[in-house]
Structure to design on (859 residues):
C-alpha cells in the first residue's frame, strides 16, 4: 500500500519498526512448558500426577541404586557395609553378587577355561549376519553365513570336527547332485538333492568318520549340553530356533496360501494347533513325550529336543507373519509373474517372496523378540536359563541367600537392551527398505 | 496357478501326472497325503512300541480315581477325595478365572496407557512410553517373579497388622479404607455377604447362589430395557430431529433396579479382620494368584496400549477435522467418529492378546497357582505317571479354549467391521 498518504490521516508512519522481542512467556522454555505441560487445567493436573509418580519411583529406587555395594563376599557383608556407610535401615543394592557371579549369568556352568569358545561363536555370529544386513559387503561372505551354524555347533559343543564336517559334506554332495542333474530334469535334480545327502549320512558317514578320526584326530574338548546355561543358552535357543523356523515358516505360509485343498488343510491344522497351545505345554512335550514318539531306545540331547519344539512353535508364528506379508502384496505382482511365464517356484523366489519377506521384517523381528523372551520358560524343563534357574542356584549358596532384586535388575536390563535394540533396528530397517508403490 | 491352454492330446501318459497342469496338483496332493499318513503312522507305531516296552497302556480311566491332593483355590467344591477329573476341572476353572480377570485389567491398563501416550502432555506421554517399552521388552516370567518376590519378601506377616496394646498402633495399616491387607502369605480382601439371602441351590456340579443369579438376571433385564429405551430415543430423533435427554434415564434404568435388589437382599461387604494369627471374615486370596494376575495384566497391558495407540492413530486426521467441521463436540467426535473406526483396527490384535494372556497364564507354574497345568499337567501327571494322556488332554483343552475365544471374538469382529459394498 505504498502511495500518497490520505489527506485525512493524521499520522502515517514512514519507516518500519524493528520486530519486537516476543513476550517472555511465548518463547523458549516458558513457551514449551506452557504448551506441553500446563496448557489447561486438566493438563496441569496430569503433569502434577506425572511428577508425583516420578517422585514415587525416584524416591523408592534411587537410594537403593546409589547405595549399591560392589565389593563384598556375601549378602550379610553387603548389608553391613551399607549400614555402616548410610546408617542403620538404609536400603541398598548388593551388586557384589553380580560381580562375583556374572560369568554364571552369561555362560551357566560352561567350563570357565573354555569361555573363549562361546565368545568367539558370538563374535563370528555378527560376521555371519553382516552380509545379510549390509548389501554393500562382498557377496562371497555369504558362504561363511551358510557355514556358520556348523562352525557355531562345533565351537559350542566341541568334540571331533569330523561329524560336523560330514554334515557339511552331505549338503555339498546334495548341491552337487542338483547342479549335475538340473539341466536334464528339475524334478529329478530336486529328488537327488534330497536323496544323496540322506544316503550319504545314513550309510557312508559312520565309516568315513571313524577312519578320519583314527587318522587325523582333530578334536577340541567336548562340552555336554547340561553345562550350558545363562544367556548363552537363551541365545543358542533363540537364534537356533529362529534360524530353523524361518524356512519352515515360509513353507507353511505358502502352504496356507496354496490352492491345493489338502496342503492348505494340513498347513492350517498345524499352524492353529501350535498357536492354540501354550509354549510350556510344548516344552513338556519335548521333555516328557518326545521319547514316546521316536523309535524305542532313541535318547537325545535335551537342548536339541527343546530346540525342535521351539522351532515348531516359532515356525507357526512366523508362518502367520509371512502370510500377512503375502496377503499385503498387490494382486498385480502375482499376475505379472504369471504373465512373464514364470513357474510357481520361480515366481515365488524372484517376485513374491522378496517383497513379502521385506514387508514381514517387523513381524519377524517381533516374533524373534517374543521367542528370545520365551526362552526363559525352559527353566521349567530343567535347563539353566538366566532368569530363574541361575539366580536360584546362586541363592542356594549360603553367602547369597536372599538376594532377589539384583539378579532381576541385571537380567532384566540385559533382556531390555537386546530386545529394545532389536526392535529399534527393525524400525530402522523398515524405513530403509520402504518402497512406496505409487 | 496358471492354466496353459494345452491342446489335449489323445491318450494318457504317466508323465502327464507331473507335467500336465491339470493333473499335477492332484499328484502333489496324493503324495503329500501319503507322506503325512506315513509320518503319522510312524509316530503312532513308535508310541505303541514305546508304551509296550514300558508296560503301559493308553487309557483315561485314571481320571475317575481319587486324586488325593488338595488345591488351595477351588471355585467349585473340591477335596482330596474328589477324582482326578474333578481336579482337572478345578484347574481349568482356575485357568479361565485368572485369564478372565487378567484380560479385564489388562484392557483397562492398556486403554488408559494407550490414550495417555497420545496425550499432548509431554511428561505423561514419556512416562507411558517408558512403561510400555520396559514391560514389552522384558520377559513376562520376570514380572511374575518380581511380583511374587515383592509379596512374599517385602510384605509384612499378618500379625504385623495387630494393634500393639501399649502404643495403640499397628506396625502396618490396611489399605483402601481398611478393606485390603497385603501380607506375605495372602491378600485379605472383603467378601460379599447377603443378609437376607435367597438361599443356595446345590447342583452336582457346583452350588449356585440364588442371590447372584437374581442380580445377574435383573442386570440383564435392565440392559435389555435400556436398549429398548435408546432405540425409542433414536426413533424420536429420527422423526422429530430432537433427541430426548437420555443419559440420566439410562443410568437410572441400568442401575436403580440392581441397587434396589441389592438393598433388599441385604448386600454388604464383609471386611477382613485379624483374629489370632490370620485374617478372617473376608476372602484370603493367595499371593500366587495376585502375583500372576499383576504380572499378566501389566505385561499384556503394555501390548494392548500399543494396539490402542496404533488404532487411534490409524484413523486419519481428516476424519476428526471433518467431524469438527460438521459442528460436533470433541466427546461426540471420539464416540461417533473415531472410536468406531479405531475399534475396527484394534479388535483383531486385541483378540490375539487375549489369547496370549490365556496361554501365558500357564506360567502359573512359576508361582504355584493351581491352574490346568498345575493340576492335570502337574500333580495328576506326577501321581499317575501317565504323561502321554495328561499332556495330550491338556493340549487339547488349551486348544479348545483358544479356538472358542478366537471364534467368539471373530463374531464380534464381524460386527464392528466396516460395512463395505
Amino acid at each position: 500500500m505504498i502511495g500518497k498518504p490520505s489527506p485525512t490521516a493524521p499520522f502515517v508512519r514512514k519507516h518500519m519498526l524493528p520486530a519486537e522481542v516476543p513476550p517472555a512467556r511465548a518463547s523458549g522454555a516458558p513457551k514449551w512448558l506452557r504448551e506441553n505441560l500446563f496448557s489447561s487445567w486438566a493438563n496441569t493436573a496430569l503433569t502434577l500426577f506425572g511428577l508425583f509418580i516420578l517422585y514415587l519411583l525416584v524416591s523408592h529406587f534411587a537410594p537403593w541404586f546409589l547405595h549399591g555395594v560392589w565389593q563384598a563376599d556375601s549378602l550379610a557383608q553387603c548389608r553391613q557395609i551399607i549400614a555402616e556407610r548410610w546408617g542403620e535401615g538404609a536400603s541398598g543394592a548388593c551388586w557384589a553378587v553380580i560381580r562375583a557371579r556374572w560369568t554364571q549369568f552369561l555362560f551357566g556352568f560352561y567350563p570357565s577355561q573354555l569361555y573363549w569358545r562361546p565368545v568367539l561363536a558370538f563374535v563370528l555370529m555378527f560376521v555371519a549376519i553382516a552380509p545379510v544386513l549390509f548389501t554393500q559387503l562382498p557377496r562371497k561372505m555369504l558362504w561363511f553365513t551358510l557355514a556358520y551354524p556348523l562352525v557355531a555347533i562345533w565351537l559350542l559343543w566341541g568334540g571331533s570336527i569330523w561329524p560336523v564336517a560330514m554334515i557339511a559334506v552331505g549338503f555339498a554332495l546334495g548341491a552337487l547332485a542338483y547342479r549335475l542333474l538340473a539341466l536334464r530334469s528339475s524334478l529329478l535334480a530336486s529328488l537327488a538333492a534330497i536323496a544323496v545327502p540322506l544316503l550319504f549320512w545314513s550309510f557312508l558317514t559312520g565309516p568315513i568318520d571313524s577312519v578320519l578320526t583314527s587318522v587325523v584326530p582333530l578334536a577340541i574338548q567336548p562340552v555336554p549340553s547340561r553345562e550350558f546355561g545363562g544367556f548363552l543358552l537363551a541365545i543358542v535357543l533363540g537364534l537356533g530356533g529362529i534360524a530353523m523356523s524361518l524356512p519352515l515358516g515360509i513353507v507353511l505360509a505358502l502352504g496356507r496360501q496354496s490352492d491345493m485343498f489338502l496342503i492348505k488343510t494340513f498347513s492350517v491344522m498345524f499352524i492353529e494347533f501350535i498357536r492354540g497351545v501354550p509354549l510350556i505345554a510344548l516344552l513338556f512335550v519335548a521333555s516328557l513325550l518326545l521319547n514316546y514318539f521316536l523309535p524305542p531306545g532313541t535318547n537325545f540331547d535335551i537342548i536339541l529336543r527343546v530346540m525342535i519344539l521351539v522351532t515348531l512353535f516359532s515356525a507357526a508364528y512366523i508362518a502367520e507373519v509371512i502370510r500377512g506379508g503375502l496377503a499385503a502384496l498387490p494382486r498385480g505382482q502375482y499376475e505379472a509373474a504369471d504373465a512373464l511365464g514364470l513357474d510357481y517356484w520361480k515366481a515365488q523366489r524372484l517376485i513374491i517372496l522378496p517383497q513379502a519377506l521385506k514387508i514381514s521384517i517387523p513381524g519377524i523381528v517381533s516374533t524373534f523378540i517374543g521367542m528370545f523372551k520365551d526362552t526363559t520358560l525352559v527353566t521349567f524343563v530343567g535347563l539353566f536359563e538366566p532368569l530363574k534357574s541361575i539366580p536360584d542356584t546362586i541363592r542356594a549358596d549360603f553367602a547369597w541367600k536372599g538376594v532377589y532384586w539384583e539378579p532381576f535388575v541385571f537380567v532384566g536390563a540385559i533382556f531390555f537392551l537386546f530386545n529394545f535394540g532389536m526392535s529399534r533396528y527393525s524400525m530402522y530397517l523398515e524405513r530403509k527398505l520402504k518402497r512406496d508403490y505409487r | 496357478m496358471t492354466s496353459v491352454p494345452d491342446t489335449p492330446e489323445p491318450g494318457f501318459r504317466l508323465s502327464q501326472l507331473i507335467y500336465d497342469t491339470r493333473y499335477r496338483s492332484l499328484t502333489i496332493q496324493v503324495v503329500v497325503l501319503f507322506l503325512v499318513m506315513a509320518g503319522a503312522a510312524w509316530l503312532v507305531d513308535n508310541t505303541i512300541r514305546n508304551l509296550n516296552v514300558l508296560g503301559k497302556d493308553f487309557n483315561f480311566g485314571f481320571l475317575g480315581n481319587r486324586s488325593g491332593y488338595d488345591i488351595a483355590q477351588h471355585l467349585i467344591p473340591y477335596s482330596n477325595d474328589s477324582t482326578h477329573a474333578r481336579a482337572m476341572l478345578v484347574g481349568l476353572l482356575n485357568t479361565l478365572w485368572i485369564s478372565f480377570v487378567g484380560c479385564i485389567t489388562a484392557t483397562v491398563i492398556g486403554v488408559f496407557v494407550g490414550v495417555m501416550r497420545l496425550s499432548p502432555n509431554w511428561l505423561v506421554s514419556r512416562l507411558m512410553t517408558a512403561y510400555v517399552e520396559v514391560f514389552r521388552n522384558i520377559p513376562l516370567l520376570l514380572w511374575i517373579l518380581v511380583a511374587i518376590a515383592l509379596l512374599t519378601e517385602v510384605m509384612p506377616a499378618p500379625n504385623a497388622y495387630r494393634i500393639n496394646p501399649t502404643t495403640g498402633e499397628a506396625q502396618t495399616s490396611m489399605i483402601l479404607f481398611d478393606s485390603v491387607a497385603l501380607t506375605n502369605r495372602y491378600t485379605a480382601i472383603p467378601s460379599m455377604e447377603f443378609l437376607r439371602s435367597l438361599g443356595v441351590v446345590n447342583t452336582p456340579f457346583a452350588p449356585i447362589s440364588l442371590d447372584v443369579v437374581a442380580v445377574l438376571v435383573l442386570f440383564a433385564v435392565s440392559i435389555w430395557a435400556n436398549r429398548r429405551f435408546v432405540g425409542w430415543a433414536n426413533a424420536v430423533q429420527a422423526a422429530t430431529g430432537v433427541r430426548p435427554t437420555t443419559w440420566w434415564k439410562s443410568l437410572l434404568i441400568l442401575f436403580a433396579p440392581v441397587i434396589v435388589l441389592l438393598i433388599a437382599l441385604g448386600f454388604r461387604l464383609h471386611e477382613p479382620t485379624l483374629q489370632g494369627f490370620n485374617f478372617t471374615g473376608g476372602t484370603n486370596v493367595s499371593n500366587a494368584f495376585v502375583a500372576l494376575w499383576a504380572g499378566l495384566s501389566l505385561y499384556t497391558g503394555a501390548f494392548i496400549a500399543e494396539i490402542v495407540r496404533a488404532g487411534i492413530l490409524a484413523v486419519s486426521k481428516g476424519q476428526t477435522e471433518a467431524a469438527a467441521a460438521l459442528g460436533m463436540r470433541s466427546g461426540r467426535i471420539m464416540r461417533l467418529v473415531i472410536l468406531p473406526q479405531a475399534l475396527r483396527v484394534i479388535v483383531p490384535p486385541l483378540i490375539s492378546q487375549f489369547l496370549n494372556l490365556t496361554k501365558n497364564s500357564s506360567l502359573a507354574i512359576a508361582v504355584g497357582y493351581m491352574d490346568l497345568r498345575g493340576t492335570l499337567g502337574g500333580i495328576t501327571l506326577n501321581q499317575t505317571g501317565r504323561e502321554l494322556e495328561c499332556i495330550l488332554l491338556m493340549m487339547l483343552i488349551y486348544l479348545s479354549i483358544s479356538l472358542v475365544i478366537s471364534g467368539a471374538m471373530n463374531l464380534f469382529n464381524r460386527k464392528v467391521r466396516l460395512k463395505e459394498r
User: Anything to note?
Assistant: Residues 176 and 189 of chain B are 10 Å apart (CA to CA). Chain B is about 60% helix and 5% strand. The longest strand of chain B covers residues 186-189.
